[in-house]
Amino acid sequence: MSELPEGLHALPEGLHAATARPAEAAQDDVLVSAEGVVKYFPIKQGIVFKKEVARVHAVDGVDLRVRRGETLGIVGESGSGKSTLARCITGLHPVTSGRILFEGTDITKLSKSGLKAFRRDVQMIFQDPYGSLNPRRRVGSIIGDPFAIHNIADGADRKKRVQELMELVGLNPEHYNRFPAEFSGGQRQRIGVARALALKPKLIVCDEPVSALDVSIQAQVINLLKDLQDELGLTYIFIAHDLSVVRYVSDRVGVMYLGRIGESAAAEELYERPRHPYSAALLSAASIADPDEAERAERIVLIGDVPSPIDPPSGCRFHPRCPKAQERCVAEEPALVVRDGDAADHLTACHFPVEPGEVLAHEHAGISQVSTEPELPEVEQ
Ligand SMILES: Nc1ncnc2c1ncn2[C@@H]1O[C@H](COP(=O)(O)OP(=O)(O)OP(=O)(O)O)[C@@H](O)[C@H]1O
Ligand code: SF4
Ligand SMILES: [Mg+2]
Q1: What residue stretches are annotated with the ABC transporter domain (predicted)?
Q2: CA distances from 82 to 34, 105, 229, 237, 337 (A)
């Protein structure tokens, strides 16, 4: 495991030097891929006859590939579509269009029984270890849910398997009969991890799995996930706000903006040489150790709010906030492709990528923002 690059936030205390990245993941051994995935949420109005009046473009044409045994990190501001994409990939949301191939099968076309079988191979771990556990049920029965749903083991056999899972994730198997409230936040997330592992999945989608935890506990859960990956050969999609955590756990990282992937590359490559102005802005803020200062820097570089996903901007949807925007960016959507001089798996959706050493302008952003300043009459000197 490489050290954290200079300037990034320190890792949560206790994050141990990691195990090797799974370089053994063959370059083309793709476990899951998304092709042109679109997910719109209709907005309806009307009292008796509800009529669609608009659509939230939550995910709007995403292509990605995740190789067996690797971790793909996904970052992006709130509302950029990360969770929606995760739910599409796990089959929890039907897609509006596009394909999701899991071991070569398009899961968007699966029948009910096909989908049930697919759900054994793909699990999710959610942000909120409190909200995702029923407080009135004992943890043994919560962790054993997947066995019950899939009719796999029962009675003493199920209990034995559940206790093995508890041991695997560092919980005391004797606490089988306890309720979630009797566990700490970190332990509750371990319960979620145990439940996700029950059916020996191939892919686990982790949606902000440590965001709700104290920093010191975050480290333990991240280390657990990494150890389990090595031990069980798991593949992860790992969504998080904390860019340093994403860098630590990921082999490759995709940056989402308003429902699209703006850039994707090997983690080191992306963090060292971001090419998309949005990635560069996010990372420049993350490289400042003081969180308040970093937030301020992010606000300066990324002037303005994220535009509404109901009516995303034309062309490159980052253009109203981009310090490098030109006329072409308003008219023409940039393709997510390899740009001159970049590695074969470094893709950037930008007409004017950031060049090495280039510093993004702080004072100017976008080209089509309507000025809210009143126009002042010219005064003769
Ligand atoms: N069920 C839904 N119905 C309508 N709109 C939705 C639904 N789920 C998500 N959205 C909208 O889709 C967009 C993307 O949301 P999503 O939760 O995927 O973003 P996110 O990147 O995961 O954000 P965060 O970092 O805050 O978790 C947002 O504008 C959100 O309001
Ligand atoms: S295409 Fe234009 S607006 Fe979009 S990121 Fe690149 S320079 Fe900025
Ligand atoms: Mg989310």
Answers
A1: 43-283
A2: 13, 23, 22, 10, 20
- Beta-sheet strands, E only, within 14-156: 30-45, 51-67, 71-75, 97-102, 105-106, 122-125
User: Closest ligand to 77 CA?
Assistant: 1
Q: Tell me how far apart the alpha carbons of residues 345 and 265 are, in angstroms, rounded to a whole number.
A: 6
Residues 56 and 40 sit within 8 Å (Cβ to Cβ) = yes
pLDDT of residue 296 exceeding 90:
no
- Could you tell me the two tokens for 80? 């950029």
Q: Is there a contact between 43 and 16 (Cβ–Cβ < 8 Å)?
A: no
Average pLDDT across the chain, whole number: 85
CA 94 – CA 338 distance, rounded (Å): 30
Q: pTM, whole model, 2 decimals? A: 0.86
CB 138 within 8 A of CB 178: yes
Of the listed ligands, the closest to the CA of 334 is 2
Under 8 Å between Cβ of 129 and 220? no
For residue 368, is pLDDT > 60?
no
351 C-beta closer than 6 A to ligand 2:
yes
CA of 329 to the centre of ligand 2 (A): 6
Compute CA distances 366 → 239, 249, 299, whole Å. Answer: 28, 33, 14
Q: Distance between CA atoms of 73 and 248, rounded to whole angstroms?
A: 10
Residue spans of the domains in the chain: they are 276-369
Rounded Cα–Cα distance for residues 92 and 139 (Å): 24
Helix (H) or strand (E) holding 262: strand 260-266
Edge-to-edge strands, sheet with 252-257:
122-125, 203-207, 235-239, 71-75, 252-257, 260-266, 347-348, 337-338
